[in-house]
Amino acid sequence: MIDKIFSNLTRFSALLVLFIVAWIFTELYNQSLESIHAFGFDFITKDEWAPNLDKFGAYAAIFGSVASTFLAMLFAIPVAIGVAIFLSEIAHDKIKGFFGVSVELLAAIPSVIYGMWGLFYFVPIIRDIFGGMGIGLLSAGIVLAIMILPFMAAVTRDAMNTTPDILKESAYALGGTQWDVIKDVIIPYARAGIIGSIILALGRAIGETMAVTFVMGNVHHTPSSITDPTTSIPVTLANEFTEADSSLYFSSLFGLALTLLIMSFMVIAVAKFYFLRKERRGS
User: Which CATH class is domain 43-282?
Assistant: First the structure.
């Protein structure tokens, strides 16, 4: 009897998750219908965003979301893996705990704090080095990278710590160096966890709002360089949702939200598909 109740409860929980996702998608789609009928496919291919003229194009926001996420992952992945390797294999036992807790504390800092720090302390550095205002795509990418780095490093470290000692000891017994053990034993064994941490950080970065709202600029224009100000979908929604004064404006913002949801699903689906294919080939 208890087993049957437990089975039904877990089945209900799984179906509830699917129902919530479908509900969110349906609501966003229904609210976006006016924008879809008015602009069609042009909504995601044009970058003109002029609420006073009832012209709404999401390309600049889509580009800003993808580009800032790409920069963040480009900066964060090698550093996070390096931190994880140091904490799991190189650091002395006396300092492992201190640095491990420090990484986890970085993950606990609210994203709005990263945004404020980026605006008042990091943007001036970018401005002095590259010129301009300092607010733009590069600043957003670096602040995002710093924000997602502790998540990726912590999960990767935990995955590497699951490597059985007998595998590492066998590699050392065969004459392998520490680098050989890390490269040929630990990283392949922890591959699933490493890819999982990257996917987790990717999902966090592409939908991040407050950390980039402070430093991106909220300019509806496709940047010509990585130091130019631009916008992203979350930044646009955060800054303009309360300013929507027409049904088309309101519907276009919901269209942005729907686009972000679809982008997130596509990114995670592609990453999962690629990972599963690699795992099947490896097996």
Answer: mainly alpha
